Each structure stands twice: as C-alpha cells, then as structure tokens.
C-alpha cells in the first residue's frame, strides 16, 4: 500500500464531504439531473471489480460472474434498485454488497434469468481482464466478504491515484508525477532520489521535499475519497482504519 501522510481534511476535504457517494446515489434515486446520473454511472464503473471478485469467490463461473455483475450494475444505473435507499444510512461499500446480495436472492427466484440486459445500456466490463485480475488474487481462505472488502480498498486507492495524477497533469506536471509516483510505495533509498533529481533537474533534497508533499496530498485525497463513502463525517476515522486494515491483510 502506498505511504501517505494525513494531517486532517483541510479545505478540500471538507468540500468533498458535502458531495458524497451517498448524495450521488440519492440524486439518482430521485431522478436527478444528467450530471448526477453521469456521476452515478462513474461510481458503478469504478466499483464493478470488487463485486465481480465477490461473485467469483462465492462460486460463480467467470462467465456468470461477469453476467451477474453486468446486470446488477445496469439495474443500479437505471435506478431499478434504488427506491429502498434511505438518506444518510450506512457506508457505501456496505450498501453495494448488501444490494448485490439482495439482487442475487431475487435472481435465484427468476425463471427467465437468461433475459438479462433488457436493451438497457451496458457497463463496459472486460471479462478477460477481470478474470486475469481475479486469478492473481492470493490463494487463501478469505471469505467472499473479505475479498470484496480488499478489492473495495484497492479500488479506493486507484481512484485516489487517478485523481492525483490528473491534478498533476492539469498543472502541467505529468512528468513529475510519473517520476515521483513510485515513491508512494515507500522504502526508496537516497540513490533513487538522486536518480529522480537528475531526471527532473532537482537536487536530492528537493526531491525529498517533493515526495513529502506528494504523500501529504495523497493522504488528503484519500481521506476525501473515504469521506465520500460514509453517511456521517464522524465515521471517517473508523473508515480510514478499516481501509488500512483491509488493504494490508
């Protein structure tokens, strides 16, 4: 897991909490504007793999896991499974998994399961990539729920990394991000910093300062991302501890 420094949410973190994953869900439930619908679809596209990994761990074949994930997310995007969502309840990851379990229960009761999709827009899922990712999962006795939680945490990491990369690129510092991003993993030796300095035209000390700032920015964005997945700001610290636990198992 990347190393990061966290010193509180700051201005950006506070602003991020006001637009949470829950607010996106509720906007979709209530028939919000196109922008809200697009944000909801983006969430579905981001979190499909933890759902796929859960389905594979409970015994679904690669094809069936892809098919079920596809149909589940298609229904969510179409608001079909959002009517029972209550404002400000629970954590987004728990909502996703609980809704998936309810969906599976309903699916088992249907005789026409082969008629999935119904002409609605499909979520882009790469079956080959999904199964390749699943096959490199550690062979252990983890429950399907643990597999889901771990992949949820890794998805959060990917979203934070993508946001930070995009921010660097927007500032015209894409090359700096490419050079410094490996330092998020920690354990880099001074010689490595010297190599980066030579590449970027910086001193070794300057690189160390840049890495320190990078980790601080990463930590702030991570907290903001986790803040967006809970219903109450008081839950953020618990969610951060949970995130660290599931991504370092």
How does this structure look, described?
The protein has one domain (10-108, 122-247). Helices cover 66% and strands 0% of the residues. Residues 6-19 have low confidence and may be disordered. It is mostly helical. It has 12 helices and no strands. The chain has helices at 10-18, 21-29, 34-46, 48-57, 62-77, 92-108, 127-135, 144-170, 174-180, 190-200, 204-227, 236-247.
What labels would you give this structure?
single chain, 12 helices, 249 residues, mainly alpha, elongated, 66% helix
Summarize the structure.
By secondary structure, this protein is mainly α. Helix content is 66%, strand content 0%.
Number of helices: 12
Helix vs. strand class: mainly alpha
- The average pLDDT is 78
Computed CA radius of gyration, to the nearest angstrom: 20 Å
> Biggest sheet, open or closed, and with what strands and sense?
none
- N-end to C-end Cα span: 10 Å
Low-pLDDT residue spans: 6-19
Secondary structure topology:
Blueprint: H1 10-18, H2 21-29, H3 34-46, H4 48-57, H5 62-77, H6 92-108, H7 127-135, H8 144-170, H9 174-180, H10 190-200, H11 204-227, H12 236-247
């Amino acid at each position: 897991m990347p190393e990061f420094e966290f010193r509180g949410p700051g201005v950006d973190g506070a602003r991020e909490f006001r637009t949470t994953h829950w607010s996106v869900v509720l906007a979709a439930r209530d028939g919000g504007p196109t922008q809200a619908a697009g944000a909801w679809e983006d969430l579905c596209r981001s979190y499909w793999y933890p759902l796929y990994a859960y389905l594979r761990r409970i015994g679904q074949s690669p094809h069936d896991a892809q098919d079920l994930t596809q149909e589940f997310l298609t229904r969510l995007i179409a608001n079909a499974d959002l009517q029972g969502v209550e404002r400000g309840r629970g954590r987004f990851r728990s909502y996703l998994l609980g809704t998936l379990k309810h969906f599976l229960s309903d699916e088992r009761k249907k005789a026409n399961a082969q008629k999935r999709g119904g002409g609605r827009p499909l979520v882009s899922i790469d079956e080959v990539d999904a199964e390749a990712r699943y096959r490199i999962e550690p062979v252990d006795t983890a429950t399907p729920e643990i597999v889901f939680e771990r992949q949820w945490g890794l998805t959060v990491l990917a979203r934070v990394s993508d946001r930070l990369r995009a921010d660097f690129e927007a500032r015209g510092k894409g090359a700096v991000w490419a050079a410094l991003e490996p330092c998020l993993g920690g354990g880099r030796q001074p010689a490595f910093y010297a190599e980066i300095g030579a590449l970027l035209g910086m001193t070794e000390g300057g690189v160390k300062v840049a890495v320190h700032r990078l980790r601080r920015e990463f930590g702030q964005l991570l907290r903001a991302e986790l803040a967006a997945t809970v219903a109450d700001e008081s839950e953020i610290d618990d969610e951060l501890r949970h995130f660290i636990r599931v991504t370092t198992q």
